[in-house]
Design a protein that fits this description.
Distance between the termini: 7 Å
Oligomer: single chain
Structural class: alpha/beta
Shape: globular
Number of strands: 7
Strand order of the largest sheet: 2-1-3-4-5-6-7
Order of helices and strands: EHEHHEHEEEEHH
CATH architecture: Alpha-Beta Complex
Amino acid sequence: MIIFVATTNPGKIREISKILEMPGISILTPEDINISLDVEENGQSFAENAVIKARAWCEASGYPCLADDSGLVVKALDGRPGVRSARFAGNDATDEENYTLLLDSLKEVKDRRACFVCELALAFPDGDVVLARGEYEGLILEEPTGDAGFGYDPVFLDPASGRSFAQLSPQEKNDRSHRKKALIELKQKLLESGRL
């Protein structure tokens, strides 16, 4: 099965390619077939945004398309940044600007519980869409630590290791990742449906 990964985010492409690496699956990216698409993410949930993106890229490419919408949900902020995780500090915000605003928003806040959420949508040319969800719970640090990863990784404490996601090796991060959990669920659904 060819799966077109509907993202230009190199960090996500690396994670998805590594986790989905198995016989019978070939991964294509927008760069591989030289197409670009600007999809407005106007859904009210991670799942809605993932479906919007997957369907749009599927139609544009002609391949089964995997899209995700993922982000950080912080309990003390009533679930924010949520679907606006990549744009928390503004539409063109950098990772550092986003996590700096998050840290500023949590000054003097004792409850620092948070979770990374990933909703995957795999849209097929026949109109079928398979959804999967993964979550990973942790805590928000008081300052960034580590220089690996991307997004909110430098401020997200992994309780299992006592280190930030930005201090984990790619393999350690993949082993814990919300995206991995969603991808495992997706693979199981594809196997059960006979698609794989």
